[in-house]
Amino acid sequence: MNHVVARLKDYSGQVATGLRILAVCFAAATASAGTAQASELSLIIHRGEKSIEIFAAMPMQTAVGALGLDTELLAGPNGEVDFWALRETHWLVGDELFKDVAVSQAGEPMPLEAMALMVHPEDDPIPFSTPIDGYLAVSVCTAPLDADNLPLDHLTLYTGLIGFPDEPMDPLTLTLPLSDETPDQVFVYDYFDGALKHKGIYAVPEDGTIALPGVPKPHTMTAGAVALLTIGLLGGAAVWRLRPSAKDKDA
Q1: Starting at the edge strand that comes first in sequence, how are the strands of the sheet with 108-109 ordered?
Q2: Is pLDDT of 104 > 80?
Q3: How far, rounded to the nearest angstrom, does the alpha carbon of residue 64 sit from its chain's CA centroid?
């Protein structure tokens, strides 16, 4: 019996993983008709049971003017971006980009680590409203291999960061550094496990702090509960099959 329970637990874990992948893909497919392009600042919050991923999209002037990104991290002396050189240091630039953005939960700072950063030509915008959009934006450069280097003001910047808070579903607070270039509003898409929980446009107040609500904690069955339920169903089916029918009783 122990090996049966172990096999059922392993199977239930595989099913849960498969369902999460399907949920993310389904969310991307259903949202594709209404995807949004990068505005002054757009965020995709993707929460899991143990982590939070934050994808950000912004024009280069927002990254430089509002977040204080050093242009020398991206551009050469001529002010143009070498796409191939950027591929070698993209995660370092992502850390630098968010160094002055404070993210917290319940007043406690939430450390973030950059996963990747990519730039895309401004005149060829890409969809940005689902976690799949976020993954693709920071992983794949849409510029042709033979494309000329572009000036910073012709580019849109995308980055992805990850944190591991104790309660990923709790409310989030983001505080942007204040400057004349601080965005007036932020577009936010908030997901849990690939499912969109809410979206909205948040005005940036004078102190630069944006309060994002939490998302409901999912009601899920543990692997052990799934295994016990499966055993119960199999046992019930076996009893039903063994139970003599009325015809058998008459015989």
Answers
A1: 108-109, 102-105, 172-175, 209-212
A2: yes
A3: 23
